[in-house]
Amino acid sequence: MKKLTFFLMSAVVVLASSCLKDQKDYFDKSSAERLQEVQENLRALLADNQYGWRIEYFIGNTEQDRGGKNLTLKFGKDLDTVCVRSEEFVDSSFTSHFKLTGDDGPVLSFDTYNGILHKYAVPSSSYYEARGGDFEFLIIDYSPEKIVLKGKRSGKTSVLYPLAEDAKTFTERLHQSDKAFYVSSFEGTLGSTAVKGEIDVRNRQFTITEKLDDEYADAETTTLPYILTEKGLQFYEPEEFLGTTLESLTYSAADTTFSAAGVSLKGFIPKDWRPYEFFEGSYMFLHNDGMFQIELVPTEDQESYRANGFGTNFDIFMFYDIKTGRLNIEAQFVTAKGSDEVLQEGENYVIMAPLGESGFFGLDGEGYSSAWNMREDRPVYVWENNGRNARFMSSELMLRLYNLTDGFVRDSQGYSMGPSVAKFNGNKASLTPKSMQKR
Questions:
Q1: Is the Cβ–Cβ distance between 83 and 97 less than 8 Å?
Q2: For residue range 16-48, what is the model confidence (pLDDT) as tens digits?
Q3: Domain 181-268, second-level architecture
Q4: Contact at 8 Å (CB) between 135 and 118?
Q5: SS3 for 177?
Q6: Could you state, in order of their start, the residue ranges of all structural domains in the chain?
């Protein structure tokens, strides 16, 4: 493997020696010439593979709040172009440009917009701070076997490996593995220690907690970002936890188990778990005083649905919980129909919030969850309390005015006030969800 460490140290030596009298040139070429030579070698190496490269692309902020995605990169031989595919978007590929520059060593930069790479690295309406991805990388090590990159913004390591098959075939296979993997929780052992945990398959986080008999005792816990492989899960970096080193886990879909040296875990999947795309379409929404038709439209981030039909001039959102495979209706600002603009009445905003049986509003994720009747031919979802707060039982959804400084707007008698600019169908300020049936 060609180590760039020597190249960087050599550059330091040249700079330092230039300050001495009777300077002696220890190299046949200048540092700029050597950098150009490395860049030319890298350019040839990137374009040399028949099928291109696969990259274990880790994203997240400084706390590493997300795991990795499997992407493929096919670099052009004659033009500075790169074709990118992803396990997430198997039906699309995006071609853009790249360049090799120098900045404390060689840098690989994807300098024009690419629909896959920049999705993770550029802010959007859903992710105003972006997802923590990179499109500029320091090249740490390189060889025909692998190229090690370090994100200039995130500092995270991503590794390129040569592909041994067509990029579309590779990404489609990983896509199918991803769709088949939706374990939400697990129990088992690390060595001789009992553990339990949860898996956030959307953000690819694997959280393990020591299982103690005393529920009030402080249990050891850790969260490991992972990337999906054809064998199971590979963590961002090895970590020792409760005396066991965790680097990767083999997953068996047949019995939902995870295994490795010293690791034995049994995963669990809710019986009525459904994938996100299952919910798209038209429904009859039943409530305490009738029914109306709604349309669930997927959002760009695939973490919620815009629900059209609750009122004449506004929409609400139903939030997808990937852990349970259910939709949730919870407190939210009410937006104008087909828009992200929040409805206002003067200086106050319109919100929809669940009212609890105790008379208090649930503003911290409390609300309703969709329980599927387990029928594929005529799916019906019964709205039940989502269990976010054991002390909160939802009784109805209410439209109310809310002030960002003072909270709920109240009348002279202290009661929260409903808006005049938004009403549920039937000119109602409240309703109690019962069920919804797909049409």
A1: no
A2: 334 433 444 445 667 777 778 888 889 999 998
A3: Beta Barrel (2.40)
A4: yes
A5: helix
A6: 2-69+99-163, 181-268, 276-438
